[in-house]
Design a protein that fits this description.
2 domains; homodimer; alpha/beta; 6-phosphogluconate dehydrogenase C-terminal fold
């Protein structure tokens, strides 16, 4: 059990971490920091923390684990601000969707930093969507580097496991490459499909079935957060997009040539891969 | 209430129509025809019909409504076989995902044919996946043409409504254009993304979150059926793919230029459109 867990940022992930940690008694005290008083109050009312305030140094003071659950772009500034009051043994982790830049910057600044990416909560945002079971059976990728402190890595691993995650390990650059494909690519493609479909004048949304709804669900995610993710991981997403455009061009050629063999091969291959996921949680 | 409803084909849609029609007492008798005895027996055991057999003419005999729930490619042959025994007032409809070719061919052959496309049951197949509530609040598009018999159109409309659908009307070519975008495009794109992601050597499926699962769910659909759909509607799907490749190329350029304004505009636009669907059933 942690002495004190501090969560920075009262959004969907920060709020859900607080709810899960309190429910599963992962820490003796859960503190939450928010930039705005109203956000801190709301998080406290929803039960996401034992104490919630706008005083960053007070929130971090005495913590055994600090979780950065803010937008990626402000993590470095926050870390510089709270570093002076950080307890010597305090471990810091984050929930950012892109890892190389964050891990490089915060790893230099904080001796016991370990990068994390819990893959949960695709299209919703805000603490009103927070759930104490958000992380149950969710994949959480931790991204240590050579210099990462081993006991800190163990503590972060155990923390995510304690709130329900299946923890996996990748290097930050492996993470960014894989997640560009399994998360960032689907996001921009779903958005692009929605835009292509809806630029048609015939009210196409009146004619959609469950497949379209599932396929495009992620496109409801917060644009500010996703713009930041796209920019931070733009090289890997660009490579993944290039591979996809090439694949789609082949499909288009098969349609033009009415090549049923090629189409069926491509669809069978995808079904074979995708069916694997049906037998996993 | 229909005197006799005959369903041709014991798959997911045929089976679900039978279950729904019996549950909602839409017909006094529900007959189901299957090519194989075992399939007919299974449909009967599952309660999808009052009588299930492999004798096509017997199944159609005396029916007030016949629903073709077979693959598109065999509909014409079946219709030619059962036409001689069809009652004079019998209405025929189908459940095919592409309409122009089917409606043209069957409309010439059968005086009281009306094309339909119930949009339900994306990735599953087979009668074992059939559900009596499959059509509840599902969109069903009926596709009359100028020569379509008005009372037949009304009967088909009422039938889909009676088993739970929200019925909408489009011409066959409008249908094929819209459905190419809202259903066929997502299908081939989901398959292409799965293939691009899984051709990576790092076991990417170990690192997927709920967004990827939703986004790619349709790619588990039956490849034979989807190959047929792709070939039948290849021109419209090709046009939609062309528009998507153009859109994705713009996203790629924005990533290359690190153009946050362009990326955010595109993501905001998609969220705006997609959020509309969250407030519909």
């Amino acid at each position: 059990m942690l002495r004190k867990l501090t969560i920075l940022g009262p959004g969907l992930l920060g709020g859900s971490i607080g709810l899960a940690a309190r429910h599963r008694k992962v820490a003796r005290r859960v503190a939450l920091w928010a930039r705005r008083t109203e956000a801190a109050d709301e998080a406290w009312k929803l039960g996401a923390a034992d104490e919630a305030d706008t005083d960053l140094l007070e929130a971090v003071n005495g913590a055994e684990l600090v979780v950065l659950a803010t937008p990626i772009g402000v993590m470095n500034t926050l870390a510089q601000q709270f570093k002076p009051v950080l307890a010597k043994d305090c471990v810091v982790t984050d929930v950012g969707s892109v890892k190389y830049q964050v891990v490089t910057a915060l790893g230099e600044l904080l001796p016991r930093f370990v990068g994390s990416h819990p893959m949960a909560g695709s299209e919703q945002s805000g603490i009103e969507a927070a759930r104490r079971d958000l992380f149950e059976k969710a994949v959480c990728i931790v991204t240590p580097v050579e210099t990462t402190d081993k006991p800190a890595l163990q503590l972060v691993h155990d923390f995510w496991k304690a709130i329900g995650c299946n923890v996996r390990t990748l290097s930050p650059s492996e993470h960014d490459e894989i997640v560009a494909r399994v998360s960032h690519l689907p996001h921009v493609v779903a958005a692009a499909v929605v835009n292509v479909v809806c630029s048609d004048g015939m009210n196409p949304l009146n004619f959609v079935g469950p497949g379209f709804k599932d396929f495009t669900r992620v496109a409801s995610g917060p644009p500010e957060m996703w713009t930041e993710i796209c920019q931070q991981n733009r090289q890997e997403i660009g490579r993944a997009l290039e591979a996809l455009i090439e694949e789609l061009s082949q499909v288009r050629a098969a349609l033009e040539n009415n090549d049923g063999v090629e189409l069926k091969t491509m669809l069978k291959r995808a079904k074979h891969f995708r069916d694997e996921l049906r037998f996993r949680v």
